[in-house]
Structure formats: structure tokens, C-alpha cells
Model the fold of this input.
Amino acid sequence: MAVRQLPLEQPFKGAAERERALEQVRRTAARCRACPLWEIGTQTVFGVGPATARLVLIGEAPGYQEDQQGMPFVGPAGKLLDEALAEAGLSRPGVYITNIVKHRPWVPGGAHGKNRPPRQSEITACRPWLAQELAIVRPRIIGCLGALAAREILGKGFRLTEQRGQWFEAEAAPHVLATIHPSYVLIQPHESHDRLRAHLFSDLRRIAERYRQVAAEEAASGVLSAEC
Ligand code: URA
Done:
């Protein structure tokens, strides 16, 4: 089942009300015990960014740095994402950035443990948090980073190798595009690294282009959103 924006009983009136609603969900999520990951994590890593963001980027799950700092995409994958955003002309503070799983999945090994992909049971347990974030932010555009995030938003049949870089309409947002996860680019051998990095960067440029179109349409119709 793909994640969708939950219908609201009472639509939010303004930006401040949406920020308050998001803060409330963030506080509740900080105490989440819906799957066992909380026992091995430092903290819940909730989404960051304006409650009125037009664009939401969704990754997989926090890594070591994110677990330590309590913020998504602040480690090596985050640095690459920042570069791609800057190159596309998008400012990170205007984007809402989150993950499908909000505690770090890892196994013992090395100095800081080794990240592992989240299990389906962990993704399912975490789904209500993402659904609530989307219900409050109500993005016009979603960028899915990696196949797991894409399947959450676009459904289980989504195939990243064939469908990355294409636009879809989903219940979660009218414009959805999935790209390669920055962490996946970072672990590529030399031969494929540059090609996959170029895909990530060109997909972010496509998102920025769509962002500007949507912003122009909204400006024409008087809608208020966070700028990035
Ligand atoms: N990878 C993710 O999917 N999310 C993060 O926050 C960091 C790395």
C-alpha cells in the first residue's frame, strides 16, 4: 500500500498552525516504540524543514551521523545531497527532508556499527509518521531518494532502474519523481560512480525545474508556500 496524504478533519488555516501541528507529531514520534529499532538507536530522527514546503525529499533511514545529531541527511550522503541541491539551485532550508524509517537500522561492526536496510516490518511500523508529515506539509512535489522510499510513495511495483527520473502522480503528491539514493552513489566502484552521480544531479535539476513551474503557478493564484 502506498503512503498518501491523510485526509484532515479540519484543514489547517495558516503556516503557524501547521508548524505547531508538525512539532506536536515530532514530540510524539520522539517516544515511538512501534518497532525494536528504538532500543538500538540514540534518538528518533524526524523530518526537518518548513511545514509549508512545496518540496519534500524522502530518504530511507538515518545513518550514524543522523542518529547522533538527530537530523536527516547530515552525514556523507547528506553532503552529496547538499551539493546536488545547490547545483540545482534549490536551498536546503526551504525543503522538507525526511526518511521512511526514523530510527537507525544497524548491526554491530566497525567503529560505529554498520548501517543495514530497514526491514519491511520497520517500514510498516514507521508509516504513520510519514503519513502525518505529508498530511501537514501537503507537498506539491515529492523527490524519493532510493527504491525503498519510491515504493512507499508510488507502490510496490515501482522499479528504480527503469523508472527513475520520470514524473508520476500519486496520492501523496501531484508530482513525484524518484532518483538514486545518495548513499548508493557513494558506495559505487569507480566505473559506475560518475554515471550514477550524474543521474542523481540531473534528477535534482528536473525537480528544481518542476519546483519553479509550480511556484510560478502558485504565485499566479495567490497560494502561500515556503520558498527554496
Ligand atoms: N540516508 C538516508 O536515507 N537518510 C539519511 O538521513 C541519511 C542517509
